[in-house]
Amino acid sequence: MDFCGISVTESAPDSTVLCRFRKELTEQGTYDELLGEINRQLEEKGIIVNQGIIADASITITPRKPKGKKTYHLPEGEYTLPLKEVKKKGVDPEASWVKRGNRLSYGYKRHYAVEANNGLVLSVYTSKASEHESKHLSSLLDKLALSKGTEILADKGYSSKANESLLHARGLKSRIQRKRERGKRGDYWLGLYNGLIGKRRYKVERVFGSIKSWFKTSGARYVGAAKTHSQHVLEALSYNLWRSPGLYLSASRA
Prior knowledge:
Blueprint: H1 15-28, H2 30-44, E1 53-61, E2 72-73, E3 84-85, E4 96-100, E5 103-115, E6 121-128, H3 137-141, E7 151-154, H4 161-169, E8 173-176, H5 188-214, H6 225-253
Parallel strand pairs: 1-7, 7-8
Antiparallel strand pairs: 1-5, 2-3, 4-5, 5-6
Helix pairs in contact: 1-6, 2-6
């Protein structure tokens, strides 16, 4: 009540009011604007110093996955293809399956663009888990006003001619790890190049691990891509605010 400016004589909003408010923020896309505004203030305080961008993605599992065999709806007298799949209750229809190694996961994929200096999250994009992260590099960069010459760091999953052309067209420096060409043996210089980038990429892995550890996020809390995106942005925003006091004190002492 003190944080929201509500006096003792006024009634505090109940869970229904907060739920409606959260829904309104999601529908209006306000969470992304809020992240941008807070990051602007952090930049004014010298906490965010844009010295490059690190892009990466992580899977957000949803417990609302389909179980059992698929069933299809076939109206009497109609034999049109493809058949319409019957949506089961309690299943998030906007999520999708993805296979990593021998493990199947059902959910979404969070894409983060992290500032390379202190590792704070600058932009967020949410997609189905089945969509490859390399296809959404532009979606992350579109939300940022980057100056020419900014370095973009990413792992081999982002290595593609399309992404290289994208960065070149925007005047950005590609620091994407490169894949070894088929049929060629290990290249010393390629390994050295990828190793140098890898030493700077750990900061984005720290973001994913810290969010999961600090905020106890075991997966998607809501149904639907829009609400899950709001969760991703809110977690990123909370991560930035959580780390900001320590970063501000460190900058002040320096």
